[in-house]
Fold:
Amino acid sequence: MGCCSNSEQKNASWFCGNVSGIKECVVVHTMSKNNLSRIVAYVAVEEEEAERNYKAELRQYVPGYMIPNRIIILDVLPKNANGKIDRNR
Structure:
């Protein structure tokens, strides 16, 4: 489902390892119904971090086009049989 370059995906997922309170995340590039590029981040956070404004924090570190259009907070990210994040679920 990629619509962006690999370097954009790496840059967009920068915050997964650099923002405190995030246990793990995955960033997915998709196309909207209107054929627009969208960045969606699925993020598993520490319990007390659920209400934090990640977009505002990210704006301090990365250009606007790298900020996910949507950040979906989950308790845990789905894993496949090998223990890797399952991007298809």
Remarks:
- The CA atoms of residues 33 and 48 lie 34 Å apart.
